């Protein structure tokens, strides 16, 4: 019991000490919102550290763009887990005056939805999800379009006709990417196969590297990836083979292997949404934006890219953007050789979003 | 030459002064970091406190963190008292969460009181058994409990990933790997804006206090911790005490798993524990295996964690720096324990002096 009294004493002393050191003029950031309700403050929740590459990095480029172009204040928090902690972080941000919240991980969706009606004046924008509310929308990019283009480049480049693909998890988004890539490969090189290795992690340089090396040892001479780091590209560089990046342009990170990469560009969409909000004209509209809208694109081809690849990429970019060409058009066969859709048909958005099978040309299993 | 020697027992008052100095020193060291980042450190520390206690909502969030940390630390303490190094609280939390989730998903039609109490009991059993396994091997084959309990953590975590991507994947989530949300009656109600886990914490705290200080089992645990030989000689059934104590130790972490899925997240994911089982070890240690100190140390830790989240958004301090702050405070807190137990002698020449203590 003596300990208890003493420890309470310590708690009190420490609190007093800290309170006493505090300058009286400091403004509690929590009051900013009330003082200036007209000010637009945009909060970003990231699932990982910003770093120098990857998914979160591309969102952060969008945030910086908004700050520079529109002069609004932005706040962000890195490494937010996909748990109820999301609600906590949002509460902190709203406390600090945030009236627009971008959540950039699929797992944030339900927690954003949970608090959306608590803060009816705050706009919620959720990346890669499917939940919405009167003040919440979801947005994502049709990454399968530039994925297909990167497949064209890989298909032209490979000599062993074996292409490796380091993939994170067996979810529709990743599967769709592998399929789009494989269709690109087979468009130029029907004999080439795409070998898939699952890492079961989004972000783990060591694991990603190991997976890439095992593919290279198996004969792959081009490595593609659905991962958050450039480790597979660096593994390829080390072994003197080639690589397709993902998320952000990593030409400088692995100059010895980098061919190109399907990448994000959130700048135009973020700027547009914040502008609409500032003008009081923001309405929640769910979008899935393609290369036409500038949300996804293929990074410039490096000098290592095969001759003629640029022309082919340009040709298909134009065709996809004009709507003349759809990546998932019939006849489309799955791994078992069964026809998924016939001549003249294309997959609907709904079918693409729930894709759970590999197309012909993929070597690997959805576990 | 620096010579280290064991100190004679320090008076309580002096111990607390050393600890306080340790924390103050940690804050001073961190001030340089914040100054370097262009922030006024006093402003940062004030926001750390207002961010964790500044209004009722933030206070409630902090308490929601105190609950699992304290419960788990109390459990760990029971094992540590016997010098059984149970560092498997993380895994015990996770299996408790898995068991509770199994009940929540499969018996969601049950009445809420019945459902919640079943989840509670099953989670405690699961956590208890998960700690019982290494205890059994320790008693029978004298295996190393530190490694055993550590490895079981990773097994539990991988199991959640398996369930999340496999058999328990929510078909309603468009193929995305998540486990379905709990129905309303599998969710722990809020009492005064904090999930009902705080009542469980108060009850468990009282029970553990009685167990450790007033019961025969508590006495036996203490004796085994001092010396197994003495315990044997006194005719105690050492193996039985170890097995029971470890079951209780794991059961408390199992309960934490249930509270986290049913009171906080309303679903199970691999981040259900998020390292709390490891933080609880530090709390048990800093509490010097004393029951009454656990909630106090846990409260400090919760403040530090919750406050650090807040300063990250308020000052745009990178996560890494917020973590360095927590680690520095911890480092100095543990360091002050060193200076409480040992003395440093600075000498020009080492003389053949007899060590005191």
Structure report:
The complex is a heterodimer of chains A (367) and B (357). Chain A has helices spanning 2-21, 32-35, 55-70, 85-95, 109-116, 144-157, 172-188, 205-217, 231-238, 267-278, 309-322, 349-353, and strands spanning 41-45, 73-77, 100-103, 123-127, 136-141, 162-167, 193-198, 222-226, 242-244, 258-260, 262-264, 287-289, 296-298, 332-333, 339-341, 362-363. Chain A has 367 residues and is α/β, with parallel strands linked by helices. Chain A folds into two domains: 35-141 and 266-293, 3-Layer(aba) Sandwich (Rossmann fold); 144-261 and 299-363, Rossmann fold, CATH 3.40.50. In chain A, helix 3 packs across helix 10 and helix 8 (205-217) crosses helix 9. The termini of chain A are far apart. Chain B is mainly alpha-helical and 357 residues long. Chain B has a domain at 70-293. In chain B, the strands form two sheets. In chain B, strands 1-4 form a two-stranded antiparallel sheet. In chain B, strands 2-3 form a two-stranded antiparallel sheet. In chain B, strand 2 and strand 3 (194-195) form a beta hairpin.
